[in-house]
Amino acid sequence: MNEYGVLPVVPERPIYVIDASVVLKWFTQLDEGDIDKANLLREKFRNREVELLAPELLIYEVTNVLRYKLDLDISDINSAIESIFEMRLLKSMSQGTMKKVVKIARDADVTVYDATYLSFAESIHSLLITVDERFYEKVHHRPDVILLKDFAEP
C-alpha cells in the first residue's frame, strides 16, 4: 500500500480517479449526457473490474451541489453521502501532492478544486476522468486526464 492506502495497480483492474462532476451523474434524475457512462463506471467498480478513487474534496463538492438541488430532500442527500462513503473512494492528500495542486492551478489557470483531482491522479499514476469540459480544455495536453464521454471500457 502507498501513502494513500492504495494497493498497487493490478493490470486487470485499473485505477481511475474521478471528480465530483462524474459522481454527481450518479445522483441526478435529469436526462443529461454521460449518465449512462457514469453508471457504467460505477457498475464496473461494483463488479470489481475497476478501482475508483478521489481526494476527500469530492464529498464536499458533491454535497454542496446536491444541497442546492431543491428536488432532492435531505434523505436523498444523506443516501448519496452514505453511498460515497460506503464505496471507500475518498483518500487523503499528501503535502507534496497539495503543493503540486497550486502549480497546476496557476499553470493551467484552473481552480484549486479542479487541480486537486488532477494532482491526486498524477500522484498515484492514474487517469482522471471528468465531465467538466471547460477544465478539460485547459489541461487536455496532459496525459492523465480524459472526458467521461471518451472513456472506453478497459
Topology:
Blueprint: E1 15-18, H1 20-26, H2 35-46, E2 51-55, H3 57-67, H4 74-87, E3 90-91, H5 95-108, H6 112-123, E4 127-130, H7 133-139, E5 145-147
Parallel strand pairs: 1-2, 1-4, 2-3, 4-5
Helix pairs in contact: 1-2, 1-3, 3-4, 5-6
Averaging pLDDT over every residue, what do you get? 91
* Rg of Cα set: 15 Å
Q: If helices are DSSP runs of H or I spanning 4 or more residues, what is the number of helices?
A: 7
β-strand amount: 5-15%
The ordered H/E elements are: EHHEHHEHHEHE
The count of β-strands is 5
Instruction: Report low-confidence residues grouped into runs of 5 or more.
Output: none
Fraction in helix: 40-55%
The biggest beta sheet reads: 5 strands, parallel
Enumerate the strands of the largest sheet in spatial order, edge to edge or round the barrel: 3-2-1-4-5
Distance between the termini: 23 Å
Structural class: alpha/beta
Shape: globular
What's this, in brief?
The chain is of the alpha/beta class and 154 residues long. The chain has helices spanning 20-26, 35-46, 57-67, 74-87, 95-108, 112-123, 133-139; strands spanning 15-18, 51-55, 90-91, 127-130, 145-147. The chain has seven helices and five strands.
